[in-house]
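pasting input
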Amino acid sequence: MSATMTMKERLAIGRVRMTELDAVVRSRNFEEVNRGLSREEAECEANRCIQCTHRPCVDGCPVGVSIPEFLERLAAGDLAGSARILTGDNALPAVCGRVCPQETQCEARCVRGVKGEPVAIGYLERFVADWAMAHADELGRPQLPASTGRRVAVVGCGPAGLTAAGELARRGHGVTIFEALHDTGGVLRYGIPEFRLPKEIIDREVARLLELGVAVECNVVIGKTLTIAQLKSAFDALFVANGAGLPMMLNIPGENLKGVYSANEYLTRVNLMGAGRDSQSTTPILLGRNVAVIGGGNTAMDCVRTARRLGAERAMIVYRRSEAEMPARVEEIKHAKEEGVEFLVLNAPLEIVGDGEGWASFLRCQRMELGPPDDSGRRRPVPVEGAEYDLPADVVVNAVGTRANPLLTATAPDLDLNRWGNIESDERGATSIPGVYAGGDIVRGGSTVILAMGDGKRAAAAIHDYLTGGGAA
Amino acid sequence: MFEVIGNDILAPNLHRLTVRAPRVAAARRAGQFVMVRSAAGEERIPLTIGDADPAAGTITLYVQAIGASTRRIVAVPAGGALRDVAGPLGLPTHIANWGRVACIGGGVGTAVLYPLARALAEAGNEVTTIIGGRSAQYIILKDELAAFSRELLITTEDGSLGRKGFVTHALDDLITDPKLRPGAVFAVGPVPMMRAVAEQTRPHGIETVVSLNPIMIDGTGMCGGCRVVVGGVSRFACVDGPEFDGHQVDFANLTDRLSTYRKIEAEHACRLAGKETV
Ligand SMILES: Cc1cc2nc3c(=O)[nH]c(=O)nc-3n(C[C@H](O)[C@H](O)[C@H](O)COP(=O)(O)OP(=O)(O)OC[C@H]3O[C@@H](n4cnc5c(N)ncnc54)[C@H](O)[C@@H]3O)c2cc1C
Ligand code: FES
């Protein structure tokens, strides 16, 4: 049908709306909010793509997914063909379709967005990826080349490590992933909540890797259980993707009161350990009536929406700048608001005030206003004199960010780091140690899933060249 | 899965587990710990590695069954398995030769003390060991500790074994006698005990190392839940510790943070008990 559709007809189609769980219902459970598109909706939306020749969306995608091609196959009703194109370009499309900031990447470049709304590329990526997962048999198994006999160790089982492992296995190399935690997925598992990314998707992606012959060893902390030097002698090459798992502290008084969590602790308890969510879990969490989450990124939104689901009467974002500066995805901010989250913007935390028995009870805030633009043209928040107040908060979550965790790098003195402790690497991931590559958040600092995956993909190609003697040395 | 080779009861609710974990056994040094989950759905529990046999690929854990999760760990029989054992974590004990040292253990802390005291003895220190408990049946590892200690002093609160009283009474004798006075003190046990020891040595300026046991989740520095205040700054016990200068530790904050989930756990225990009776 798509071939017969005229340009005018394509332009007349309005952007599809994602079906969502009702905001009141979902703010009390952990079910996925976005329900996905039907096949009719997806094919219709794919027809909104006018197949323009300069393909700006592809440039907007950090891994260069062949977007017009997979949309064209989808519009033609050839789901298997569409899925082959998508999964060939992107190792974790069901994840990216859910968590990528499409609004600043592919969709931001879509020509249809110039005069209206861009094609819903993210929704369609998710649709095709979910279809591919459900119809794995129809797609057939990828043909693996003969084993090269070369072995690669991957450190960390987040998106960077998972992507690199898949790419290397498809080139015939033996791959073992070493993961410090007891489960796979990295931030996808312990950070991003179930209501945005069901954990079943990670399980399936990992199962696909196992089918490719990848070995995953959990409970191995590189730098402690085994050293980089040991891995170097047991494997032909290494890919280090241990993420940016070290919470930054607020450094304000009261930070060690009971009820004050880092975002990592709060989310790990709930997501990885099942606290407050799974009746079988024995890990506890403080529920909190008034929960204040400090920060304005995706992590802050995930925490505050989790707090709401754990029953908080007031779940609040406390952010020192204005909403326009929030780094969180637009969709997350929208969903949070619908779920009853309060946004206290232009508020800087000064102190967490205790109740006299060691429990957090108030967050002392300083009201801010936007001052004149600074050299960079950004209006910096400045305190409003005398405007301090106490916000009731029995749980305070610090979601201001993370840094590189030195646990591994401290035990590998030959590995060059930048001044923030991130591993130095070239554009293909090569580090200061020959045969050791790195990517994802440990190189970039807190970044995104898709950039971590892009690093994994590029490093896998570089490692392949290194192992087979091809490409630049 | 990590096979449990042996599970003996040393004292009421105190078990010694021997677990097959070859990589941990090979890498481990005195003072380090592992994170353990008995099964899916369970909490991650930090446990000090009491001993290791790299040749056999085994580690020894001393586990006091105090909560739901530790009870399930000790319930795993020989031949069974623990789902997750990750480590060795934390910094190893700083071992040096002070000449004379006092090693003090209270309750299950004695098990944590054991590898540390032995490492100190092996480094040439003259070790005086003081262990204390409520009564005789809570005194563990006395033969093992006596094997390398110059002297082993035992105190019990009820006087059923050794001297009646607390470890601090025995320590007092050492500190006040210039001929016995230790160059450093290592104390592992309940927070009030460690705090009392630190207060006792402070006026004498005797270096005092304590091993802290805050609540932990990952044990790798990722969550910050294990933070303790040392010298006025927050430190992560799982990566910067677990051993710290006892004179710098904010014990009040540690005690307080340890009580975070007490109410939730009590309610949970009630619910379980309620279920079992119906
Ligand atoms: C709450 C939250 C929400 C986010 N939301 C989004 C979003 O919506 N969209 C988006 O694009 N990005 C989002 N991000 C960012 C994104 O998740 C990260 O950029 C991405 O996961 C980085 O991937 P990675 O593979 O480099 O590292 P990670 O995902 O951090 O994985 C690293 C893995 O290595 C393991 N590890 C660490 N140290 C060791 C060691 N010494 N030995 C062995 N294993 C080790 C860790 O346990 C972990 O499993 C979010 C981040 C957080 C925290
Ligand atoms: S236990 Fe999480 S940082 Fe120490």
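fyi Residues 155 and 163 of chain B are 5 Å apart (CA to CA).
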